[in-house]
Amino acid sequence: MKLGARMMKTGLAVGIALYIGHLIGFVSPLLAAIAVVFSIQPSIYRSYQSIIEQVQGNTIGALIAIIAVFTLGNDPFIVGFAIILVIGMTTTLKMNENTIALAVVAVIALMDSTDQTFLYFAGSRFTSMLLGILAAFIVNLVFLPPRYETRLFTKIDRATNDILQWLRVTTRNLSDEPALKYEITRIQDDMRWIDHTYLLYSEERTYFKGSHFSKGRKMVLFRQLITTTKKSFDVLKAFYRLEHKIEQIPEQFQDAVVQELDKLVNAHEKLILSLKGRIKNTHKQSLRRIEEPDIPLLVERLMSVYEKSNNPDKLVFLPLASQLMEYHYQLERLKKLLKSYQAHHQDDFIQTSEK
């Protein structure tokens, strides 16, 4: 079992909340622990956003619970009615699901039967939940701040390597179809995680002007890295769909497709290696021209072959031609953005691995 940072932060925050709750003498310190579980966030920025929203949601739940108890009592159906009101209000205010759930917990906790003075009982439980929210925020802020830049590049690098390896195998008719089908599904899941990690990375805030400009350029570069990887994945899926029809292409043209695609794959790999700092930026051949793959000419040849053919299935190769052109275009764009970043931020390297 792998212990992630969020798991460790949740456990630590729960321990802190319970300890402080017992130390102060709250009636229900367990509510602080429950609040922690709903309040832990994957990034500092989201933690800052959530503490404001969750305090608001918790306050709404507490106010409705107190008003309901004083006016209608705490009959089970009254509790249900109060929960409906809270969910309606928090949903109207477009609060997230965790905040809504925490507000519902506040209603249930405060409308519970008690022999104590109600206001003291409600105040103690409300404060316990605020303690849990605060404990989660402090732990998010101080302990194990996420490094989404490194995490994002690692995910992109791994997905790109997998795609390019499968492209080499598939274009030579060496791939195992069930294995490739499974890998395509897995890579699709990886791409969704990459998009999610990019969103978290984009939410990280910088506090210095120079860092702000550098972060902006990095975000553009990462966005293009993701786009290029997705285009290479589209090419792989196009080859997979045409696996049983690729033999309709003349053998000489099949060899040309393999050669040109190899050039694209090599160019993509060189750009990734340059980003890792494994290719000298000062070397004239460090980023050899990506124009070497003559994809437009390849597509023209593909079209001319099938314009002369009476095969009714000839149009099935049009998506492959389109994907190859788009992949080539995105590689060109990535090359320009990478050169621009390296020229303007020579001392601000992208964190491609943990130090």
Automatic annotation (TrEMBL):
Cited Pfam families: ArAE_1
Keyword Transmembrane belongs to the record: yes
Transmembrane segments: 12-40, 60-87, 99-120, 126-144
Annotated localization: Cell membrane
UniProt keyword Magnesium, yes or no: no
Gene Ontology terms: cellular component: plasma membrane
Main location: membrane
Membrane topology: Multi-pass membrane protein
Keywords attached to this entry: Cell membrane, Membrane, Transmembrane, Transmembrane helix
Protein name: Aromatic acid exporter family protein
Organism: Halobacillus trueperi
